[in-house]
Amino acid sequence: MSAIALAPHAHADLYKWTDARGNVHYGDQAPAGQARIIHTPAAGQSAITSQARQSLDAQEQAFQKRRQAAADARAKADKEAEQTRMRRENCAKARSNLSALQNSPRVYSTDAAGQRSYMDDAARERATADSQKAVADFCK
User: Fold this and answer.
1) For 61, which of 30, 46, 116, 127 is 20 to 30 Å away at the CA?
2) Model's pTM, two decimal places?
3) Residues 55, 57, 58, CA angle at the centre, nearest 5°?
4) How many independent structural domains does the chain possess?
5) Is 90 inside any structural domain?
6) Where is the DUF4124 domain (predicted)?
7) Residue 4, pLDDT score
8) Helix/strand/coil (H, E, C) string of the chain?
9) Longest dimension (CA), the chain
10) Residue 134 lies in a domain
11) How far is CA 81 from CA 73, 74, 85, 134, in A?
12) d(CA 70, CA 91)
């Protein structure tokens, strides 16, 4: 990553100067009148820097493309895993419901007031058929 940060400055002159305290400094911009140039890039270096920058840009684009593809693949796998979990959960509920309808002598439901309402034989047959269809749909 540091190569990317330095690439735009590769074509600039490098200056050296000493401040009032005697500390030596280096930089691409010098304070007025007290610095000397210690490095000037060669004439072809700018073209090389431009090529390097283009190469880094292409690598960065390829990396971002691979990163996005991996994120898309993870999202797809997560979605499929959630659908599988929901299918298994619905299957378990449908089988439990079917078992209760087939194995209990009397089946009832409770209303909001807490009163039991027992199923008659016709309602039980319809509920059993619906449960068998749900098992067939969810437990593939």
Assistant:
1) 46
2) 0.49
3) 65
4) 1
5) no
6) 3-54
7) 46
8) CHHHHHHHHCCCCEEEEECCCCCEEEECCCCCCCEEEEECCCCCHHHHHHHHHHHHHHHHHHHHHHHHHHHHHHHHHHHHHHHHHHHHHHHHHHHHHHHHHHHCCCCEEECCCCCEEECCHHHHHHHHHHHHHHHHHHCC
9) 104
10) no
11) 12, 10, 6, 20
12) 31
Which residues are 109's β-sheet partners? 117
**CB 95, CB 133: distance < 8 Å:** no
- To the nearest whole number, what is the mean pLDDT of the chain? 82
- Which residue segment(s) compose the domain that 28 sits in? 1-41
Confidence at residue 6, expressed as pLDDT on a 0 to 100 scale: 45
- CA torsion 88-91-97-98 (nearest 10°) is -150
Backbone angles phi, psi at 120, to 5 degrees: -85, 175
Residue at 136 is within a domain: no
Looking at residue 52, what is its pLDDT? 80
Task: Report the distance separating Cα 36 and Cα 38, nearest Å.
Answer: 6
